[in-house]
Amino acid sequence: MTNQKTVAIALSGGAAKGFAHLGVLQALEEHNMKPVAISGSSAGAIAAAFYADGYSPVEILKLMSSFKLKNFFSLGFIRSGLMKTSGIFRILKTHLRAENIESLQIPTWICVTNLNKGKAEYYNSGNLTRYVLASASIPVLFRPVVSHGIVLADGGICDNLPIEPLKKLASSIFAVNVNPVVEQDIKPSIKSIAERTFVLSLNSRLKYSTNKPDLLFEPQELAKFSYFNIKNAEKMFEIGYDHANEKLKEYTNRM
pTM to 2 decimals? Predict the structure, then answer.
């Protein structure tokens, strides 16, 4: 463990709710707590990649919110997924400056699920676009990344809050979970039940995880937003930012 007071941060998956990650990162910078290491699953992997590539949180917000949902995904009805991820691949390939993970400005770990082995894997080297795309490939919904017979899919399947690779890299480990569980009125529709089941499944694994952060950001207001509505990007950024500022004030007062 380093003697210098430093912060490493893990960013969860959560589709469009991942815009809140950017608000948290903005607040950290303003508190002079810029992470020395970062990890992410799914949407968190996307945020981590762009941030570690030198983009500011506001720049990432403007870039990603400038696209419509159809720019990210399109219907494919292919054997391994209902939607094609060619759109998000083009966005990553066009706008990420680093080709490999190890070339990023901040040490970064991208969490993916190795479906063959049935476990989470954390990559801090190799093709950046390939592993970020794999980390964001929700099974059944999106086509996974396949290489040499190995099927790589959404990191959130096995580890939606990848704290594991950050151990001993900083004096404090922070984490952002954009999938809070709050009491809700659930409509008996496929969409509502699917989203609720998804959130409960993710959080049940987090509850029993042995990896606990020193500070957890979990904005409760995010529960009211849809996973695939990017029209509220700025609002979710603000929610993450305001929540982080409150938590950081409490945290620094305890120190």
Answer: 0.88
